[in-house]
Specification:
The complex is a heterodimer.
Chain A: E1 2-7, E2 9-10, E3 22-23, H1 27-47, E4 53-60, H2 68-81, E5 85-94, H3 101-109, E6 114-120, H4 124-129, H5 136-149, E7 152-159, H6 166-179, E8 182-187, H7 195-201, H8 210-226, E9 230-233, E10 236-238, H9 245-251, E11 256-259, E12 264-269, E13 275-283, H10 288-296, E14 308-311, H11 314-325, E15 332-333, E16 349-352, E17 355-358, H12 360-364, H13 366-373
Parallel strand pairs in A: 1-4, 1-11, 2-3, 4-5, 5-6, 6-7, 7-8
Antiparallel strand pairs in A: 8-10, 9-10, 12-13, 13-14, 15-17, 16-17
Helix pairs in contact in A: 1-2, 1-10, 2-3, 6-8
Chain B: E1 6-13, H1 19-29, H2 47-52, E2 59-67, E3 70-78, H3 86-93, E4 98-104, H4 111-122, E5 126-132, H5 141-152, H6 170-180, E6 193-202, E7 206-215, E8 217-219, E9 223-226, E10 232-234, E11 237-241, E12 245-248, E13 250-252, E14 256-263, E15 274-277, E16 296-302, H7 308-321, E17 326-332, E18 336-343, H8 346-359, E19 364-366, E20 373-377, E21 382-385, E22 397-411, H9 416-425, E23 429-437, E24 440-448, H10 449-463, E25 469-479, E26 482-489, E27 492-493, E28 499-502, H11 503-520, E29 528-534, E30 537-544, H12 560-575, E31 578-580, E32 583-585, H13 587-592
Parallel strand pairs in B: 1-3, 1-4, 4-5
Antiparallel strand pairs in B: 2-3, 6-7, 6-15, 7-14, 8-13, 9-10, 9-15, 11-12, 11-14, 16-18, 16-19, 17-18, 20-21, 20-22, 22-24, 22-25, 23-24, 26-27, 26-28, 26-29, 29-30, 31-32
Helix pairs in contact in B: 3-4
The chains are: A alpha/beta, B alpha+beta.
Amino acid sequence: MELYLHFPFCKKKCAYCDFTSYAGCAEATVFSYLTALKREIAFAGKRFAAERIDTVYLGGGTPSLMSPREIESLFKRLKESFPLYAPTEVSVEVNPESATEEVLCAFRDAGVNRVSMGVQSFFDDNLRSVGRVHDAATARAAARRIAGIFDNFSLDIIVGLPYDTPEFVRAETEEAGELAPHVSVYELTLEEGTPLFGAVDEGRVWLPDDDEVAEYMEIAADALAGKGLERYEVSNFAKPGYECRHNRGYWTREAYVGLGAGAHSLVKNDAEGKPLPAQIRFASPKDVNAYIAGVNCVSGFDDVPRAEMSVLSEGEIRAERIMLGLRTREGIDENLLAGRSAGRAEEFFERGEGRVRLTERGLAVMNSVLVELI
Amino acid sequence: MSLSHIRNFSIIAHIDHGKSTLADRLIERTGTVSSRDMSDQLLDNMDIEKERGITIKLQTCRLFYDYDGEEYTFNLIDTPGHVDFTYEVSRSLAACEGALLVVDATQGVEAQTLSNVYLALDNDLEILPVINKIDLASADVDGVKKEIEDIIGLDTTGCPLISAKEGIGIDDVLRQIVEKLPPPKGDADAPLKALIFDSYYDNYRGAISMVRIVDGRVKAGDRIKMFATGKTFEVVEVGVYSPGMRPTTSLSAGEVGYIAASIKNVADTAVGDTITLADRPAPAPLKGYKKVTPMVFTGVYPADGARYNDLKEALLKLQLNDASLTFEAENSKALGFGFRCGFLGLLHMEIIEERLEREFDLDLITTAPGVSYHVTKTNGEKLIIDNPTNLPPAGEIESIEEPIVKATIYTPPEYVGQIMELCQEKRGIFIDMTYVDTSRVQMTYRLPLNEIIYDFFDSLKSRTRGYASLDYEPDGYEKSDLVRLDMLINGDMCDALSLIVHKDKAYARGRGIAEKLKDAIPRQLFEIPIQAAIGGKIIARETVKALRKDVLAKCYGGDITRKKKLLEKQKEGKKRMRRVGSVEVPSEAFVSILKVGDDK
């Protein structure tokens, strides 16, 4: 089973972000949150005592804002709580300005063996335009610092930012591929309610259009391939052996438990490790205070209040397998489609050896293809 | 009740000249409705009527007026003011002896003022001019008086000068109704003759006939006979409107009111028919009305195909109260099952569509409005075509005739040039132009109805800053060089987008529609060519480029639910689209092409 932990605090919220993260919170809130998170970890350790923990992922927010003491204490709680704690991969997300030597070493000492840093762009105008705290020089320095401590690390790049050009996207993805054995390239998603959405809506910021962004993605894939990083999922590129195991688990539908505000879980087994009558997905409340209160008022994992909960039918599981599996280089088992054809959309598929995968062009328009299929 | 103490009258006016406001004041001043219960424009029952400030359905109301100690009964029959509803005006006028002609002191005589006066004169009505809005700074009472005398030929000496809004001069109007308008004639002891001037369906009482009793009398329990069908019914209730329904013991010669007789089918109370008594019938019916024929046709489809039956029910219900609405089932490849509906004009169409959406909670897709064409085939066969899809191939057509109208336009002289230009663009033929006075010109043109229903009225208003008024009447059919314009989406003809247009306009229309469609159809997995064609010939082409990016970049921390919801939403959106061949076309696309030409 996989574990996800969420640290929902940032120094400053980025203009495009609509994820569960809060900026400018009081120390006391962070303290209470970590206390509650550790309480939930202890609950989960009992509930999932039968499960071997294969991967851990600490995401955010900005987990690198945690102090070395907090880091140590959090991971200590993990090891104490899960009887079968034997992860082969422990990842954390960091941001350039807070990925200090001290913090990185604290993570390493706590058992972390993979770091993912949100660079987003190696172009200061882009970074400023979406409200990132760091500049390109800080990001480069941090990447080198990480490389000195960790063998396995990843850099995140966003394409579709206001100042992107084809030349620039090529240059920055080449640089990322040069620095790291793993790179994630995300197309900027304009989410309603974010400051960036408002700015674009009012015409204060102009973003590249969909066709340009599609082209940037192709450029990025090409540039990274040139550096030996192969695309193994819609947004993820790695040198052989550096693929992120934790994220792969999402796409292959491994069971996972998400702990912390807004975290999601997919649970398949009961406390004895026997399969439940049906698989369930659920998520904790996004609101930090609601999460804290919820965890503090109960005494076991199954009683923690959840904001979303769904019991999956066979049909839903099949649809999930298709929708998630097609994101990956491996694709899906042909039998999942039960002989169904996507009609004209077939040309976005490659079939062979009993498997179906999306072509590069197919990956770019995956949602439309899925709608034809599911 | 003595006939000499009854006055039956209508109020006629150009739209916006204050007809409904005057009706309100008369009702209020005679104490028929206390001012506590007054809501503006009492006789306009429908929400749409109140919102748009127009009267659509005619309404009646009985008022009592004390004239020098003697009580008079007034039957006021409100009339619609829009050109589409001329037939309703003529119906209500047939039930009256007199009419108040309301003219706006700031506007003067307008196109419909005149057409309504002609209708009143056709019915031998005594006309009492009333000049309204005298309180406004721009009122020109003397000028308007002169216009009424010069153009219409009515004496305006001593005519009421009023402000219906401010309640000025209302008593004068009431007195002059008694003094100037004639009482009804008729013999209460003769066999019953009651003219049905309107009918509607009441959920509790069945079909209700609104009648003017010409001769005789009728009461609950009487057995009545309809001249048109010969069917007989037992009267359950008779009464008057004041303005709500109020039962009375009987209705007799000269009176206006309603008859309820548990009639299930509105068709049995045909407007224009005469009601008599079954056991003492009148020898002959009254002169009826000319049956109105729809002039504008459009395909009406439910946006959600599953609601076809709801749409059918709704149309049936509306038709119960609106005999001028016609519809028949039709089937479109793109839009599925729907109805080809016939309307009196564009306003009538808009109102029916709005009522369907509001009162019946339906989402509609309507095709471009068209008219009815007379087609002669090369083999001599004659066809009437009101749906472009049914037009035979060009090779089989000997000739096509299109409906023509005679349009009367009133305008200040400075816009004459623009109007001539507009009429020329719209294939109009100049008939006549006269200066009514120094500030007003009356222009007469013959125009194809097809052009009028396209965007003529909006263009006229925008080119004359709203000053010109328009009225038109059918003026026969004429041969014309018409073609069918088809739209092809990814090579497949979309029947719901076909139009019949004049050959000279086809290129511009085709281009315009193709451009609109290109914007309205979302990009899909494949490139979509959009073509306009006449016969087999392509006259315009646009392309919707293939989609290049549609993927959720990141699954945040295993949040699969969010991704599933997005796909679900995308799938829902797809369901609401119409398929033309392999292409998904959103409902809005069909509507947006109706607006071609708006943005020039």
